[in-house]
Amino acid sequence: MTEYKSALLRLLAERGYIHQLTDPTGLDELAATQVIPGYIGFDATAPSLHVGSLVQIMMLRRLQQAGHKPIVVMGGGTTKVGDPSGKDESRRMLDQQGIQANIASIRTVFERLLTFGDGPTDAVMVDNDEWLSQLGYIDLLRTVGPHFTINRMLTFDSVKLRLDREQPLTFLEFNYMILQAYDFRELALRHGCRLQMGGSDQWGNIINGIELTRRMEGRELFGLTTPLLTTADGAKMGKTAAGAVWLNEDALPAYDFWQYWRNVDDRDVGRFLKLFTDLPLDEIARLEALQGSEINAAKVVLANAVTALCRGEDAARAAEATATATFAGGGLGEDLPVLEVPADGMVLVAALTGIGFTASNGEAKRKVAEGAVRIDDAPATDPALVLALAPGEERKLSLGKKRHGILRGA
Q1: Residue 176 annotated as binding site
Q2: What Å distances lie between residue 280 and 277, 283, 284, 286, 304, CA to CA?
Q3: CA-CA distance, 174 to 62, in Å (whole number)?
Q4: So where does L-tyrosine get bound (predicted)?
């Protein structure tokens, strides 16, 4: 591992955040001598980010922990365009009201993980619509356009991926990289920003911003990317069979969020503890070294720590208590998902879909046929079974060993 002078790069390197750096020596020297304002951008395509964005949020947390200034850039402007990076198709268009509502919802997670304020290292949140919406098209073409060549833009992975697959890439999306580069320049002018961080798929966009600002303003900026984050089995971080693992409480109950981390692959425990918790590295090394069934204790530590950061200490304690009651005691934990069953009953497959265990009744039927469904820990083999419950009566519905919910009579 490279030896860095600055606390910032040492911290990022030790915990596994660094994939690429534009000028390691220059950034290291700068971080060792002054406060660096650094930013990451997040588009507001939904009311919540999912755990695939959590490594980026934690990078801003590390930036602040090392004595520097995080700038959270919400893409109120770029959300209207759409980033083609890592996408197979165009995103749906949102109106201004929907974008602003999403930003307000997303902010709640950042407020848990960062300290906002007016101090030199306090985080700030800005919306790039503030400057992008003021751009005149002809002015943009004249001032920014000459610094980009179509030849080079066609070489970026985000563009090549779509073209190679012969999937449409709209002119609107093709402009995204220009707008992101313009963001970096604008943040340098408005907030003294010197560093942009992001996932490895953002490397080309970050380089664009550095070069544009150097050519237009003569300022030296820096870029840093994280490794592509996948689970040990190769799956994309933040995706499960049941859907995205959302960071906001109203998008995913705390118990399901906690369970996601409790059920990670054994091989991912140490890496995730470094990336997603504040536990000391020596304690992480101890937990990572646990063998056999003892690794489950490390997973509980991981689940508690991440849930406490993103949802609060109370949510973490409640989720662990629910898991203990459900798995160890065989009872019904208070934090399990609940589905109200109408007085005239509900078919089993509809209950599985209604509680969120399956995406469709067809999938529910397959799970029943596979023997994966249980009611009060007894196998349920008839997909057409009608569940009739008295008012207030509760029964436990389980899919596999790890998904449990409560059916309650209405």
Answers
A1: yes
A2: 9, 5, 6, 10, 15
A3: 32
A4: 39, 176, 180
- Check if the beta carbon of residue 99 is closer than 8 Å to that of residue 79: yes
Q: Is 137 annotated as a binding residue?
A: no
- The identity of residue 346, as a single letter, is M
Find out whether 20 is annotated in a ligand binding site. no
Cβ–Cβ under 8 Å, residues 332 and 344:
no
Number of Cα atoms under 13 Å in the Cβ half of residue 127? 18
pTM assigned to the model:
0.77
Q: Give the pLDDT confidence of 168-216 residue by residue, as tens digits.
A: 776 666 777 888 899 999 999 999 999 999 999 889 889 999 999 999 9
39 is in an annotated binding site: yes
Give me the phi and psi of 378, to 5 degrees please.
Answer: -105, 140
**Which domains are present in the chain?**
7-226 (3.40.50.620), 253-328 (1.10.240.10), 338-409 (3.10.290.10)
How far apart CA 6 and CA 28 sit, in angstroms, is: 6
